[in-house]
Structure to design on (392 residues):
């Protein structure tokens, strides 16, 4: 390994201490980072005393540096481009005492120059951006050395965290404008773009709507993009904690099922998707969300009347699911005439006619997981729309 080390002079005429004194300094030569490749996490520690003159009679030295082995791992001695390169005997040990680097250098004749005495290389191994100290416990020179030693300052290692295009958490919605007309439920398609060096990452995000006219009924991952671990109802939407499927490489798609409760053509509202901060330890430093504008277009009185009827039936018709069936429970005064089952793309999956019972069950063994819509025709010829989410 070829290391180009700086030529630093310490203890010159501008120093605060006497020319007969020397203050050893520990320096981290690299800009150590928390994220990125292993190269970014390297720590190169140099032990320096400034310019050493031949008249100082430096024949040798030994030293001990303490550190936290839970935060840093040292494993490589550095002699090249240091004074110790020219010493006949030298060695650095990383395993004699836990959490200590110990070393020495010794020569038959005095050496000098404006180079660091010695160095050692390691890596920052902790997951978080935490300051950790390196302390020069002692440095002892051979008896011939002409200068007295002043106590060294503690070196604090603090890795940096910068924005990196390899670490992305971005949620986007495909539509820019979402229009309700006669329907009262619609699906928005969204996707998560996530890149990180972490595996099996858990993400959190909020889906919020700024109007009481709408309710977020369900959020469904597509193509096994992710698993919903936890879902919490917010005052204005939903909060989700999900576990990404590692088999998907970058984009994780999902749909948002939005129900309109009231027709109002005078306002435009917003639905926001907000990615939440993962943790202080995560390398993702920039989070991007998205929003879609939502409005209603009312075309004549029929739409309003239809919605009123739908809301009326919604109080009396319930849809339930279990491991085997989708069950429609009708407690209204009218009977169900027909049930039409649509998938999330709007394609008709099945039709059920001649329904004579108050409760009707649909076998879901042939249905793949996803969002489905039930269009229920009542005996008074009104239609009732219901959405159902199938997980298995």
């Amino acid at each position: 390994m070829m290391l180009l080390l700086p030529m630093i002079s310490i203890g010159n005429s501008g120093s605060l201490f006497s020319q007969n004194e020397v203050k050893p300094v520990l320096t981290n030569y690299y800009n150590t980072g928390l994220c990125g490749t292993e190269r970014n996490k390297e720590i190169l520690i140099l032990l320096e005393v400034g310019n050493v003159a031949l008249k100082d009679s430096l024949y040798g030295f030994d030293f001990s540096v303490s550190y936290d082995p839970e935060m840093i791992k040292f494993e490589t001695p550095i002699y090249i481009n240091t004074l110790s390169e020219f010493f006949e005997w030298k060695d650095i040990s990383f395993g004699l005492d836990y959490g200590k680097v110990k070393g020495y250098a010794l020569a038959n004749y005095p050496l000098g120059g404006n180079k660091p005495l010695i160095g050692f290389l390691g890596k920052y191994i902790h997951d978080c951006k935490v300051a950790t100290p390196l302390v020069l416990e002692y440095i002892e020179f051979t008896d011939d050395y002409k200068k007295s030693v002043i106590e060294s300052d503690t070196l604090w290692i603090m890795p940096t965290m910068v924005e990196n295009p390899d670490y992305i958490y971005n949620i986007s919605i495909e539509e820019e404008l979402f229009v309700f007309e006669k329907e009262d439920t619609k699906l928005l398609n969204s996707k998560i773009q996530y890149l990180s060096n972490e595996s099996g990452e858990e993400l959190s995000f909020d889906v919020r709507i700024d109007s009481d006219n709408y309710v977020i009924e369900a959020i469904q991952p597509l193509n096994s993009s992710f698993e919903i671990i936890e879902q919490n109802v917010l005052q204005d939407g939903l909060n989700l904690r999900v576990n990404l499927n590692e088999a998907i490489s970058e984009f994780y798609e999902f749909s948002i099922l939005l129900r309109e409760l009231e027709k109002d053509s005078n306002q435009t509202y917003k639905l926001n998707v907000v990615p939440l901060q993962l943790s202080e330890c995560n390398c993702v430093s920039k989070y991007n969300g998205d929003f879609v504008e939502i409005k209603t277009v009312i075309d004549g009185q029929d739409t309003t009347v239809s919605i009123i009827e739908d809301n009326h039936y919604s109080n009396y018709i319930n849809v339930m699911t279990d491991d085997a069936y989708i069950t429609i429970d009708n407690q209204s005064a009218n009977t169900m005439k027909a049930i039409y089952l649509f998938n999330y793309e709007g394609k008709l999956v099945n039709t059920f006619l001649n329904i004579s019972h108050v409760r009707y069950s649909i076998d879901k063994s042939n249905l793949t997981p996803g969002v489905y819509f039930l269009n229920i025709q009542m005996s008074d010829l009104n239609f009732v729309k219901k959405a159902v989410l199938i997980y298995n």
User: Anything to note?
Assistant: The two ends are 56 Å apart (CA to CA). The domain at 311-390 is CATH 2.60.40.3080 (Immunoglobulin-like).
